[in-house]
Design goal:
319 residues, alpha+beta, rod-shaped
Length: 319
């Protein structure tokens, strides 16, 4: 609405003067100065959906409150407007707004630790080194046998049962293979049946220029943890018992200079040198298989059919 100065005034911003009889002539009021403010107020009342009334003198106030509640938009990143107090904020009866500190049970403000995330120009950013570390950790599990809690396969897994897995389906498996990630756990692509049986814990390419890998055939096998300087990683151990050896010495013959050894031991009718006395009916030959466990034989324990499976320990991030 335009300001309407006193009638006859050459100054568009001239002030009105109150007249004093016999002393000061008052300003002449143009019709626009009376009409225009009324029409402006009536228009606001109508825009608010109210009907102008000669009996109500608070309609302008009511119209303003109604328009603010209806027409002011909700605030966004690009537009100012009304906001509602959320879980991370608090407001007092006096209208004081404060930001709460975030906890495990409460939304609120956080302080970046500078290691996994930071703030630049008011924008929170997750540091790339954290993303890179998690991605490397994820890929480190590709091709690693592990126990599972169910008989249902999780997504992106297969059973370690000797099946052929194609690189076209699983390109990250090929990345690990090309980078030498299966070093020491691969047999030749053309390995014969006997070699395959002797290396059930190893992967096998399906061709000289492979398009996929056969997984280790671990189904139904026991694991025997492997470490450097032990047997060949991934090789198969046949079921069997330890070698049991011994010599009955003079207890089986009349030789007085032979002592029972290994799994054999004698008692009764012996000379001072531990040999049996010839013709002594009290002499006995005793057999003890456990006597050979730590000395003779190919194993220190009963060996079930098993796989020499590498076992590693995670030591955390390096310095």
């Amino acid at each position: 609405m335009k300001y309407n100065p006193p009638a006859g005034s050459q100054d568009p911003d001239a002030k009105y003067v109150t007249g004093q009889p016999g002393k000061v002539r008052g300003s002449a009021v143009p019709a626009e100065a009376v009409e225009h403010p009324q029409r402006e107020i009536v228009e606001v009342i109508k825009k608010a959906g109210l009907t102008p009334s000669a009996d109500a003198l608070n309609q302008l106030y009511e119209a303003i409150l109604k328009i603010i509640g209806v027409q002011v938009p909700v605030a966004s990143k690009t537009e100012t407007g009304l906001v509602q107090i959320g879980d991370g904020l608090n407001i007092t009866p006096e209208g004081l707004l404060s930001v709460l500190v975030a906890t495990s049970k409460q939304n609120g403000i956080m302080r970046p630790d500078g290691t996994t995330c930071t703030v630049k120009d008011g924008v929170l950013k997750v540091l790339q080194q954290s993303n890179d570390y998690m991605e490397a950790w994820r890929k480190s599990w590709i091709g690693v046998p592990r126990y599972w809690r169910s008989t249902e396969l999780p997504d992106n897994h297969c059973w370690a049962n000797g099946d052929l897995i194609y690189f076209n389906d699983w390109p990250e498996l090929k990345e690990i293979y090309d980078a030498g990630g299966f070093e020491g756990m691969l047999m030749g692509w053309d390995a014969d049946v006997e070699t395959q049986k002797a290396n059930l814990g190893k992967w096998r390419p399906n061709a000289s220029i492979p398009t996929g890998l056969y997984t280790p055939a671990l189904s139904g096998q026991f694991f025997r943890n492997w470490a450097p300087a032990n047997d060949v990683a991934g090789s198969y151990n046949a079921a069997g018992l330890p070698e049991i050896e011994g010599d009955g010495g003079g207890y089986l013959t009349s030789a007085k200079d032979k002592v029972a050894t290994g799994v054999f031991a004698g008692s009764g009718g012996i000379f001072g040198n531990g040999n049996p006395a010839s013709g002594d009916a009290s002499r006995k030959l005793i057999f003890k298989a456990s006597a050979a466990n730590s000395v003779f034989g190919r194993s220190a324990t009963v060996m079930p059919a098993s796989i020499n499976q590498p076992a590693i320990l995670y030591l955390g991030r390096p310095t």
